[in-house]
């Protein structure tokens, strides 16, 4: 193991010599298949991780269920105090160590790795407050001497199936709300980022145990498809929060629905930025640059489509290409790197296939279009951020309607805002979109009924980089899920509508007469 990798792993108490246990339910274990964690920058094997056997999977689910029956009776503000301690444990030095591990194992650059841990810290703060504010309502009853309460009770067990691109933050969003609501959580991370999940679970479990709370309140099962299926199929899991592809999301959604479980689905994004002629290009150009190139194009919220008004298109593209020319691919942990590698070989294949497709349809490739093959980049999955102008602007064409998880930005030119909005809305996905304008009428149209149909609708703000305070999620084939802020917490509770009679009579609703 390289000394750098071993320093990062040791700083988070992960063994650098043995196979690493990847299952936690109060105790660490793992007697199933062994998976490897591979550094996308160097190709080095970072660790071998012992995943859950089928028997262990069902044991973990059982323990998680038991842990829930303990945790649901802990008063919510007390649960909030435990979340506050998790927040403290994540802050300070750990924030940097864990951020570095995200960069090492996932491949995103240092500030984005740390930023991801910051999202976890922020949602903990939010959930601490929420733990004293998850209020129900009292509804006016039509019957005298009656009251109706809507009571948020804990839901049960929440299964979190997360993706490689946000190997820490997405779990954080779910864990914090789930714990505030009084649930136990079981986490199945991406099989290519097991170390991030082990490091996080180390931190969380210590806080739980030091508070006398069963560790299985935040269980972990690393593994592949079997572990994911076990969670989707288990009747002991009330809510499955899944982040990943539309293809797998469809299977998970159907499986959970077939047992009438609840889901939160965060699937593909295919996000557009629309630039009007009155836009401030000094804001729009760098924001589109970050949206398209940041995280090497591997955010659900990455800008994949750019619609430019004809009047500003040449200038915009020139300025954007100038920024693209400054990008130097490098080690994501080195200071000032803006472009790390793609996470995996699968990502490389997506990139190659998409570029090949662009060439086959005679798209103009303004910049990019290749891997970086010189040493030392050849050891990692480095690709050139690409800007392409497909000949066809038809949003139902493959190149426009399919999300390719790579730094490829497709551009089209429009004359009227209505046309750009129609293109924006014509794809199956509906996660994020942004309009660049200083005109109030454009803004009003964009955020209203005839405007953007995505879950996140921005103005003079790029498509990526949402804050945790607002609800995060998308519509249509993105899955309609909402996480983090807004009303997202309401999905993590079971609502009890309680009608209470404190009178001496028992009148029926709607004035029904039923004399006994
Ligand atoms: C994701 O890509 O799955 O808005 C989540 C953003 C981040 C979260 C992205 N806050 O880009």
Automatic annotation (TrEMBL):
Active-site residue numbers: 266
UniProt enzyme class: oxidoreductase
Superkingdom assignment: Eukaryota
Gene3D superfamilies reported for this sequence: Aldehyde Dehydrogenase, Chain A, domain 1, Aldehyde Dehydrogenase, Chain A, domain 2
Enzyme Commission number: 1.2.1.3
InterPro entries cross-referenced by the UniProt entry: Ald_DH/histidinol_DH, Ald_DH_C, Ald_DH_CS_GLU, Ald_DH_N, Aldehyde_DH_dom, ALDH7A1-like
Segments forming domain Aldehyde dehydrogenase: 33-496
GO molecular function ontology, one term from the record: aldehyde dehydrogenase (NAD+) activity
One Pfam family, short name: Aldedh
Keyword annotations of the record: NAD, Oxidoreductase
Keyword NAD tagged: yes
Subunit (UniProt): Homotetramer.
Similarity section: Belongs to the aldehyde dehydrogenase family.
Protein name, entry field: aldehyde dehydrogenase (NAD(+))
Organism, as annotated: Tricholoma vaccinum
